[in-house]
Amino acid sequence: MNQPPVKRVKKKYWNEPTMGLWERIYILEIVRGLLITGKVFAGNMAKFLTGRKGALTAYYPEEIRADYSPINRGRHVLTQRSNGEVQCVSCNMCATVCPAYCIEIVAQANFADRAHPKSPLRFEIDYSRCIFCGFCVEACPEDAIRMAKEVPNLPGFDRDNMWGTIDLLKGWQPQADPRKPYPTVPITPVRK
Fold first, then answer.
1. What DSSP string runs through 83-131?
2. How far apart are CA 129 and CA 162, in angstroms?
3. What CATH number has the domain spanning 76-171?
4. Cα gap 14→19, rounded to integer Å
5. 76-96: pLDDT as tens digits
6. Residues 39-61 pLDDT 10s
7. 27-36: long-range contacts at Cβ-Cβ below 8 A with a sequence spacing of 24 or more?
8. Residue 178 three-state SS
9. CB of 77 within 8 A of CB of 71?
């Protein structure tokens, strides 16, 4: 007795998954999916009916989402000195440590102020490339850059609007309490 040869189906890929009996019976998978969806719906409906906050909309900016991490990093803010200038001394440490290479600083000389001989002429952050890692905040020796949690209107469709210029970074959420304050009077050299 000769049996006909068994026709084997060749896989297209070496790691192509094969469906078991339970996956081939689609109605069981559909019922399982409906049970998961119904469980989530019933839980949210119970929270809504009892007055607890469930899967409801957070009304930004009055409310902040409760599931945000307390150490969430957001948009960058440049701190200001008491005279209104930026705390940054253009050391380029933030641009050097940035893994996304999204910070550009152009320095200018300011010889009138001996405590701060350099200041940024241009300080820009490309938010389309920024990964919000916070390395720039940690690397800054002058406490000139911080990250605020609230991030209004950050995503967009126009690449030109995704550049954080010095005016935006200084004026969006002004902070004038640097941890490293400088004297307001110019430092005079000691003569011997």
1. TS-BS-----HHHHH-TT--EEEEEEE-TT-SS-SEEEEEEEEETTT--
2. 9
3. 3.30.70.3270
4. 15
5. 888 888 777 888 899 999 999
6. 989 988 888 788 776 655 677 66
7. none
8. coil
9. no
